[in-house]
Amino acid sequence: MTVRTVVTKAGFTEVTGTGYDPRGAFRQGDREVDGVADPALRELALAALLCNNAVLRRTETGWAVDGDPMEGALVSFAIKAGYDAETTRRQFPRTDEIPFDSRYRYMATLHHGHDNGFVAYVKGAPEQVIAMCSSQYTSQGPEQIDLAHWNRMVDVLGANGQRVLALAKKPMPHSAHDLTFREVERDLVLIGLAGLIDPPREEAITAVAECATAGIRVKMITGDHAATATAVARQLGLERPNSVITGDRLDSLDDEAFRLAVKGTTVFARTTPEHKLRLVETLQADGAIVAMTGDGVNDAPALKRADVGIAMGRKGTEAAKEAAEVVLADDNFATIVAAVREGRTVHDNLTKVIGWTLPTNAGEAMTIIVAILIGLTLPLTPVQILWINMVTAVGLGLTLAFEPPEPDIMQRPPRAPDAPILTGLLLWRVIFVSLLFAAGAFGMFFWAEKRALSIEEAHTVVVNAIVVMEIFYLFGMRHRRASAFTWPGVLGTPAVIAGIAFTLSAQLLFTYAPFMQTIFATRAISVADGLLIIATGVAFLLILELEKFIMRRLHPQLEAVGMTA
């Protein structure tokens, strides 16, 4: 955050510099001006420094602020105007303070000034502070305040996306040692305005756009001026940025009108903590799942009430962090969207693991059950089933947990919060694939019997056929919507490649190693048998991809709501 523009009675002054770095200059039009020599700028900077609790410090990477970022920007501005922060604060010791509160929207401090006198400095929301002023500061002395002029200046700064603060002062009696609201809220002398910029990060703008495609509505709730809120919302690319409602307007609405306003409005300006809490409750009553961000003590009730309270880890207060479920370590909105993407990926991968594990196990069980029911020789033995589960669960099923996000993961609308993981479509897939596994196992067993292979050879062929089908099924499950016959689908991930390599190595040992043949009653198989087993896996995958294609054509809404929603 940086002070970019200051306004005094003499006009606009541009402040140069970046961030909290206290190096910069003042420009009026095309000429540079001396901030030290300009009485109005010096007085404005003095008010910004004294009515302030922030401290700037130099770090290895630049300048940082201890305290509120906005107050840090004001300290930087005061140093640019020629003040030494520590020396000036010692020269004008503070004797009392009215802390900022969103209810009255200003902060006031009392200082022992020159000639044993006292002066109060006030900073806050411009419409609040200007209303408390009866005069305006000039180098010749106070004069009658021009309210229309200052309100116009506030609108100009706000329209440029700048957060606006008004700064004022009031000479106090020699006997004054404390501040009262009654004294502060009347007869102030308006010194000027400070326009601060807090430009959105590029990644935040991208994240907001990503939210729109993901079906996530982003609403901005701010204490800033409506014009400032509109400009920032436009920079961020929020939906309907010009549709702004202020806190005063919200207070005048009944419950139904409030609900409609909240539903159709994106930007809320000059709000209070009570408004934030009511907004959260109204959105929840309308069926929305609400994630609320905040950093202040006053944000705690809304953070607590939201489905997901997200506190700022850097500038957030302890009260906000305690009330929230999530503490954002980098205070970056893009990190929230990245967490949504990660959450969707985890849910996707969980569904893939379930969709892969259930039919493979059910297919094996179905093969045994059917063989027993119709009195056939078992196509594989119990110990061989244990081998399959042990090898494939580790070597194949576990790899799905490391799948990267699918390309359309943030183009899908949110799933219903009560949507089960085992949906009707997934249940159909489990049954269909289980039947394919059983058919493949029986087909290979009958083929082996027809060729008069020994029972041990037949079992070995069936076990290898099931494992190969599970490998090909892994490729089919990696992309639940898109075809598996793409370069990303065929090449796989490092985890998939490692898993398949492990599984194939284990199967070679299972088939050809003498000690494994003794343990599992297996026999070596011929190259021709091996090629037929691979062909069975290819045919299995082709049938799955055909089923996936047909389902997309019969149910095009699956592309919109997701294969498991």
Q: How helical, in percent, are the residues?
A: 40-55%
Distance between the termini: 43 Å
Number of helices: 22
Spans of at least 5 consecutive residues with low confidence: 558-565
User: What is the radius of gyration computed over CA atoms, rounded to a whole number of angstroms?
Assistant: 35 Å
DSSP strand count? 19
Overall pLDDT: 88
Structural class: alpha/beta
- Which band does the percent of strand residues land in? 15-25%
Shape: elongated
Main sheet makeup: 11 strands, mixed
Give keywords.
565 residues, alpha/beta, three-stranded parallel β-sheet, 22 helices, disordered C terminus
Folded structure, characterized:
By secondary structure, the protein is α/β, with parallel strands linked by helices. Strands 1, 2, 3, 4, 7, 8, 9, 10, 11, 12 and 13 form an 11-stranded mixed beta sheet that branches. A 3-stranded parallel beta sheet has the order 14-16-15. A 3-stranded parallel beta sheet has the order 17-18-19. Helix 7 (202-213) runs parallel beside helix 14 (333-373). The chain is elongated, with a radius of gyration of 35 Å. The model is unreliable at 558-565 (pLDDT under 50).
